[in-house]
Amino acid sequence: SYQLTQPPSVSVSPGQTASITCSGEKLGTKYTFWYQQKAGQSPILLIFQDTERHSGISERFSASNSGNTATLTISGTQSMDEADYYCQAWDNKIGVFGTGTRVTVL
Amino acid sequence: QVTLRESGPALVKPTQTLTLTCYFSGFSLSTPGVSVNWIRQPPGKALEWLARIYWDDDKYYNTSLRNRLTISKDTSRSQVVLTMTNMDPVDTATYYCARMPPRPDYGMDVWGPGTTVIVSS
């Protein structure tokens, strides 16, 4: 079955840029989605169709997808961005989530 | 305003069948392109997609759990039901339902608060 792999954790200083990768075979041929989940809360949609921000999502969030890797970038990271982040894709209409990345703002 | 809310038993015994209901409002599952998904998350672990049902009753399942899952809808009552057979302690998780709007390749834009299910004898 299709798999998406993310680094378990990323640490970033306030105001700096955090990058989260998501790797999967030929991922660039599929649309990638990104979700943010804060502690004790339901996930929220950040990015759809590889690069498009969902309504109300800060411009600090951007994303790309090419080859085997999709990347979520958080610019000017704030303490409120501390959360778990998941990539997601569809493989023949079967949903697949990444392994998740915890972003810590030091 | 689109809302979803999951409901089901908080505790089930091993080997039992779990039945979860997603109650939704603010949209219709008869609208072309709309779908509802089920996702779960074991404590401290990653999200796992389980199943999806489309407005036209097309259904898709997690490959590894396909034999244990059934998703159905009651459009008139704005409900989606997920059943999972032969429950095991490893199925202990928070179960979410989430909508995908009638826009191609948009993503799961509204999620319910989740319902926690513990599998224990």
Give the helix level of chain B as a range of percent.
under 10%
Percent helix of chain A:
under 10%
Alpha-carbon distance between the termini of chain B?
40 Å
Mean pLDDT of chain A: 97
Report the portion of residues of chain A in β strands.
over 45%
Q: What structural class results from the helix and strand content of chain B?
A: mainly beta
The profile of the biggest β sheet of chain A is:
7 strands, mixed
Largest interface, C-beta closer than 8 angstroms, per-chain residues? A-B, 23 and 23 residues
Report the count of strand segments of chain B.
11
Number of beta strands of chain A: 10
Low-confidence runs of chain A: none
- Give the terminus-to-terminus CA distance of chain A: 36 Å
Helical element count of chain A? 0
Biggest pleated sheet of chain B: 7 strands, mixed
Q: How do the strands and helices of this protein lay out in sequence?
A:
The complex is a heterodimer of chains A (106) and B (121).
Chain A: E1 9-12, E2 18-23, E3 32-37, E4 44-48, E5 52-53, E6 61-66, E7 69-74, E8 83-91, E9 94-97, E10 101-105
Parallel strand pairs in A: 1-10
Antiparallel strand pairs in A: 2-7, 3-4, 3-8, 4-5, 6-7, 8-9, 8-10
Chain B: E1 3-7, E2 11-12, E3 18-25, E4 35-41, E5 48-54, E6 59-61, E7 69-74, E8 79-84, E9 93-100, E10 110-111, E11 115-119
What brief labels describe this structure?
heterodimer; A: 106 residues; mainly beta; seven-stranded mixed sheet; three-stranded antiparallel sheet; 0% helix; B: 121 residues; four-stranded antiparallel sheet; 11 strands; 49% strand; globular
Q: Could you characterize what this model shows?
A:
The complex is a heterodimer of chains A (106) and B (121). In chain A, 0% of the residues lie in helices and 50% in strands. Chain A is mostly beta strands and 106 residues long. In chain A, the strands form two sheets. In chain A, strands 1, 3, 4, 5, 8, 9 and 10 form a seven-stranded mixed β-sheet that branches. A three-stranded antiparallel β-sheet of chain A has the order 2-7-6, with no helix packed on it. In chain A, β3 (32-37) and β4 form a beta hairpin. The relative contact order of chain A is 0.34. The mean pLDDT of chain A is 97. Chain B is mainly beta and 121 residues long. Chain B is 0% helix and 49% strand. Chain B has no helices and eleven strands. Chain B has strands spanning 3-7, 11-12, 18-25, 35-41, 48-54, 59-61, 69-74, 79-84, 93-100, 110-111, 115-119. In chain B, strands 2, 4, 5, 6, 9, 10 and 11 form a seven-stranded mixed β-sheet that branches. In chain B, 35% of the residues are buried. The mean pLDDT of chain B is 97.
